[in-house]
Design goal:
Blueprint: H1 12-19, E1 41-46, E2 56-62, H2 82-99, E3 105-110, E4 113-116, E5 126-138, E6 142-152, E7 155-168
Antiparallel strand pairs: 1-2, 2-5, 3-7, 4-7, 5-6, 6-7
C-alpha cells in the first residue's frame, strides 16, 4: 500500500485488529489488547507534517469512571497511573512504525524527559494524545523518536520528549 493510500484514521475495531496481529501482518508491530490498550481511536495520523515535518498522530481515550485502574490506583483516591499515559505514547510511536510497513515487533526503548503537571481523574471525559515524530529510521535498524503530550479535557498535563520505540525481528532488543 502506498503512503497516500494508507488510512489517516483508525477505529477501535482497527486497533483491535492490530492487537491481534492482523493489521500489519504476522510477527509485525501489534498494539496491546485491552485493558492495556490505552486509546479508543486514532483520529489523525500522517507521515508528514507535525512540528518536525516527519509525521504526527492524534489519538483519544474516552474516560469512564469504571476504567480498571481507577479501582486500584488508589483506593479512595482514584487516578490514572502516569506510566499508563506514557505507555500510550510509546504504543502510538510503535503503531506509526508498523504502519510504515517496516517489519518487527515494537518495543519501547526509552524516553528523554517526562513532565507531569496534572492528573487524569475519573471526572475527566477525554484524554487526547498528540505525538510529533522527530526521527524515523527504517533500515536494518527501525526506530521512531517522538515528542508527545497528553491532554485531559483539552489541558496539557503530561509532556514527554524523545520517546524511543524500535521494531525488532529477533527475540529481544539488543542489550
Amino acid at each position: 500500500m502506498s503512503l497516500s493510500e494508507r488510512p489517516t484514521r483508525y477505529s477501535f475495531e482497527d486497533l483491535l485488529a492490530c492487537a491481534h496481529g492482523k493489521l500489519f501482518g504476522p510477527g509485525n508491530a501489534q498494539l496491546p489488547l485491552p485493558p492495556m490498550l490505552m486509546f479508543d481511536r486514532i483520529v489523525h495520523i500522517s507521515d508528514a507534517g507535525g512540528e518536525y515535518g516527519k509525521g504526527e498522530i492524534v489519538a483519544e481515550l474516552d474516560v469512564k469512571p469504571d476504567l480498571w485502574f481507577f479501582g486500584c490506583h488508589f483506593e479512595g483516591d482514584p487516578v490514572m497511573p502516569g506510566c499508563l499515559g506514557l505507555d500510550a505514547l510509546w504504543q502510538l510511536v510503535g503503531f506509526f512504525l508498523g504502519r510504515t510497513g517496516a517489519p518487527g515487533k515494537g518495543r519501547a526503548l526509552g524516553v528523554g524527559e517526562v513532565k507531569f503537571t496534572g492528573q487524569v481523574l475519573p471526572t475527566v471525559k477525554q484524554v487526547t494524545y498528540h505525538l510529533n515524530l522527530k526521527r524515523v529510521i527504517i533500515r536494518k535498524l527501525v526506530l521512531g523518536i517522538a515528542d508527545g503530550v497528553l491532554k485531559a479535557d483539552g489541558q496539557t498535563i503530561y509532556e514527554a520528549k524523545d520517546l524511543k520505540v524500535g521494531l525488532f525481528t529477533t527475540e529481544a532488543p539488543p542489550a
